[in-house]
Request: fold
Amino acid sequence: MSARVVLPAEKRPKPPVRAVSGHVVIDQVTVAFGRGGSRHVAVENNSLEVAPGEFVALLGPSGCGKSTLLNCVAGYIRPTSGRVTVDGVPVTRPGPDRGMVFQQYSLFPWKTIHDNVAFGPLRAGKGRAEAESIARTFLEMVGLSRFAERYPGELSGGMQQRVGIARALANYPSVLLMDEPFGALDAQTRLMMQESLLRIWGEFGTTVLFVTHDVDEAVFLADRVVIMSAGPGRIVADMPVPLARPRSPEIATEGEFIRLKRRCLDKIRAESLKAFEERDR
Ligand code: ADP
Ligand code: MG
Reply:
């Protein structure tokens, strides 16, 4: 399964499509849960701008507020203060311009793979023939055409997650939001998924905001790694990843990759130490 697939010429990744939409601005966003004595500030005063078509990884330890911040962009959570805009429009609720892929495969178990992917376009008012054609296109893109008539429960975790990506893309979102999407997969499948996500992103050209706590994953995938620290969640570093694309897993053994990874780890460690010292004070 880990053997590299050599794609025929017409299926090889083209240079990324130049995106014109999907400009995300997170402007001084704070989210507090609860009130009074049980008030808990999950993320505090975070600002981040993501350019159209850019791939940004949001990296930080568990509980630092990555999902909270991502959910503000998705429109599932309203910031307590600050705001998020996508292409200049304030985010107030979820919308088809922002596709979400969660860690837990959130497919409809009673629908076939094909119908899971066609669901979004149908709900958006597309006719059956068009929705089916969109579903076929995206299932092909994630390499699952042969499984169109199967049900989610018949597929492996990695395959279900590829359906999740196809389903999110079927709405032609300008922003793809991914919350530790490969966190539940074994290491080998995870590597394969990362590579195939990069290929899909190269073809589709959408903005990606990808949450992970895995340094290797962040550096391998992203144009920029944005590091968050806990208590309350704050963005503490924003590191460009000037590695050439297309990338294949072998780059993980190259000097530049290791240097970048080292810088991330140093930053994370410095921030954790700071947090410990503050707690002990
Ligand atoms: P991460 O995704 O980085 O693991 P989260 O965004 O899930 O972190 O959580 C950040 C903090 O906010 C944690 O302390 C978590 O317990 C708290 N939190 C998240 N969602 C809620 C909620 N709905 N109600 C109360 N606290 C929450
Ligand atoms: Mg989370």
